[in-house]
Amino acid sequence: MPTFKAIVITKGEGGTSAALTDFDEQDLMEGDVTFRVEWSTVNYKDGLAVTGKAPVVRRFPMIAGIDGAGTVEASGHPDWKPGDKVILNGWGCGETHLGTYAERARVKGDWLVPLPDGLTARDAMAIGTAGYTAMLAVMALEHKGIKPDAGPVLVTGAAGGVGSIAVALLSGLGFTVIASTGRPQEAGYLEELGANQVIDRAELGGQVRPLAKERWAAAVDCVGSSTLANVLSMTRYGGSVAACGLAAGMDLPGSVAPFILRGVSLLGIDSVMAPSYLRKQAWNRLQAGLDRQKLARITSETNLAGVIEAGRRIVDGQIRGRVVVKIG
Ligand code: NDP
Fold this sequence. Notes:
The radius of gyration is 20 Å and the shape is globular. By secondary structure, the chain is α/β, with parallel strands linked by helices. It is built from nine helices and 16 strands. Helix 1 crosses helix 9 (about 305-315) and helix 2 crosses helix 7 (about 275-290). It folds into two domains: about 5-115 and about 300-325, Alpha-Beta Complex (Quinone Oxidoreductase, Chain A, domain 1); about 130-270, Rossmann fold. The longest helix is centred in the middle third of the chain and has 23 residues, at about 120-145. It binds NADPH dihydro-nicotinamide-adenine-dinucleotide phosphate. NADPH dihydro-nicotinamide-adenine-dinucleotide phosphate binds near residues 45, 158, 181, 244 and 319.
């Protein structure tokens, strides 16, 4: 029976463990499209999965990897034929459905998005769920009427994957961008991406007041917890905050004061189950609007054998920007 290389997570008495191994093709799960994964990427959630730091994986054995880009090999779905270039983000891949750190993936055709002309599969994975989430956040702010003349936009967790791309996208759209980071050594990197001001994340991590001095018109938050609560308390009257992440925690220890006294809106961003039309819109805007030189600057590369170490590093907050994974 044919096999292919994959990062497989298994569960034993001591917990979960991940290893690069051969996977039996006959054990692929159901789906009407099989595609050759050519590139993948390392997202924060992938780090949680391969390290077992959070119960992201809900089926064992599991092939890790939530993002993939590659070429259709077989299809029973009307939208796809062999040779088509596709992108896959989320939908439970690497969590409940076998994922993309593998030479082959079988999924529902409805989950796939066409690779936009002008993007390579490697570019698509340099963007990955992180970049597509950053775009969803920017689109949510735009939908609330936030325009560059409204005032500065804050990005927290700015040196990470979602944050780096959010900074580049917002700057490209003409916004004044304030980047919050715990890594002052990355100030130059963030300025090159388009940040107009870099602040220390400690400014946002302290005790939360119901309302504080108004500092920004909007924010893209990757951090959650007291950071998000402080960001809300410092958002200008009528502003909006797109909540994407939980790098500091899932709690939200704030008050309703920003909502009821300043009309601030909290916008939830979910990439995993986002509907197809929104994904296509986000990917087309990324193709058209993301500066490729900036994308190249934030991207580093590894291979399947390097994924587990990269996963450890992202969970420890040591990865700058994005990591692409060359498969095969
Ligand atoms: P990264 O690890 O690349 O970036 C997270 C960044 O958050 C770090 O680089 C760091 O930025 C900051 N950070 C980490 N730990 C802390 C802490 N304890 N306190 C304050 N800041 C911290 O991850 P991603 O960019 O890929 O993902 C960011 C978040 O978004 C994650 O929580 C992830 O799960 C979530 N996410 C959500 C999605 C959705 O659909 N809603 C999709 C994709 C990601 P710095 O060093 O600059 O301070």
